[in-house]
């Protein structure tokens, strides 16, 4: 194999694939990057047997061929180069990376041991990348990070007519985003790793085509195609939560409430819990601890319903308010230890509901 390509283009492609498929440390082959050069250009691909990524790049191919090299060293070398063009050429048992005044060489891995990259499932529909990324920035970060509970580390992606609904929970909170969807020949209902979707949300542009088969889901945009194994995510639904007995509604500025929460949270106990006391025309955030001291701050609000004083873990309340920055929000509060729902007063392209569970109030005195 022998080709010449723009350094920035190849560096960006290699970095994107490595972030999408980090590779298996215990198996060098599954941590490799498969490069295939032909008359159309070069394709970079990775497969760790759970997820795959493939991206096509324009290149001047002098000699066609296919090689497998360690992915991260290649990506890091390309990122460090500032020469405008780079040449990749096989030299014996190594792939040489040649730039003006420099040469680097990576060992070739056994390409015959690599599983390759199969064709993705046929598209089931499409969604705007901008809207999809906006929804993922909230929903994907709500999933659990504890790999000991894998069923809570995913995002349920479900098509419902002309809407695509994304849901995730770590058992203490849940985010549900509904966005416009252009449906195709089949429906989607799958649980996707949240870490993968979070990275995809940073990369997508244009339109994103999503497809699914018995055990895989694919996402494609521009020259990139990603596939991942899926889990049964039907258990993940807000229908299992009681969300109909709201007796208090609070409307407030999201930024003002978030700022007050951050300041009062500096004085919380080890659990990080604050109380939200609902008055006639304001809400008062309050906490007290023998070691850290005490704090309270009031925020103007429109109240509909009776007075109540639920308590929340401060970081969950801050996370719930963050996606509504610059907008007014409504807190729909249920009595007792039942879920609170945060929504925007005025809707947008992303219809977002953030559900948080209350906590026992902080101890005082």
TrEMBL record:
It is an enzyme of class 2 (transferase). It holds the Pfam family DNA_pol3_beta_3. Its EC number is 2.7.7.7. CDD domains: beta_clamp (cd00140). Residues 245-359 form the DNA polymerase III beta sliding clamp C-terminal domain. Residues 1-115 form the DNA polymerase III beta sliding clamp N-terminal domain. One of its GO terms (molecular function) is DNA-directed DNA polymerase activity. Gene3D superfamilies: DNA Polymerase III, subunit A, domain 2. It comes from the Bacteria. Belongs to the beta sliding clamp family. NCBIfam families: dnan (TIGR00663). This is DNA polymerase III subunit beta. It comes from Actinokineospora xionganensis.
């Amino acid at each position: 194999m022998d080709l010449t390509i723009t350094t920035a283009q190849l560096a960006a492609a290699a970095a994107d694939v490595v972030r999408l498929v980090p590779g298996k440390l215990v198996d060098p082959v599954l941590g490799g990057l498969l490069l295939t050069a032909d008359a159309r250009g070069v394709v970079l691909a990775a497969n760790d047997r759970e997820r795959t990524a493939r991206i096509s790049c324009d290149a001047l191919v002098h000699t066609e061929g296919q090689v497998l090299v360690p992915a991260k060293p290649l990506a890091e070398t390309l990122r460090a180069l500032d020469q405008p063009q780079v040449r990749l050429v096989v030299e014996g048992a190594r792939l040489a990376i040649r730039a003006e005044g420099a040469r680097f060489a990576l060992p070739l891995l056994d390409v015959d041991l690599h599983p390759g990259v199969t064709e993705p499932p046929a598209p089931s529909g499409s969604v705007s990348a901008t809207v999809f990324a906006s929804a993922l920035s909230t929903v994907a970060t709500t999933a659990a990070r504890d790999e000991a509970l894998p069923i809570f580390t995913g995002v349920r992606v479900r098509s419902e007519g002309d809407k695509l609904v994304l849901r995730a929970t770590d058992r203490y909170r849940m985010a549900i985003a509904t966005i416009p969807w252009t449906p195709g020949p089949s429906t989607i209902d799958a649980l996707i790793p949240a870490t993968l979707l979070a990275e995809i949300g940073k990369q997508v542009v244009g339109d994103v085509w999503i497809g699914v088969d018995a055990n895989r889901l694919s996402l494609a945009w521009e020259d990139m195609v990603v596939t991942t194994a899926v889990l049964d995510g039907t258990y993940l639904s807000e229908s299992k939560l009681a969300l109909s007995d709201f007796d208090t509604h609070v409307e407030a500025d999201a930024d003002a409430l978030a700022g007050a929460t951050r300041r009062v949270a500096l004085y919380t106990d080890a659990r990080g819990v604050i109380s939200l006391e609902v008055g006639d025309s304001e809400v008062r955030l309050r906490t007290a601890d023998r070691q850290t001291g005490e704090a309270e701050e009031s925020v103007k609000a429109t109240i509909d319903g009776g007075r109540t004083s639920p308590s929340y873990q401060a970081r969950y309340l801050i996370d719930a308010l963050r996606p509504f920055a610059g907008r007014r929000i409504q807190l729909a509060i249920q009595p007792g230890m039942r879920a609170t729902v945060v929504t925007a007063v005025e809707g947008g392209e992303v219809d977002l509901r953030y559900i948080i569970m209350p906590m026992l109030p902080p101890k005082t005195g």
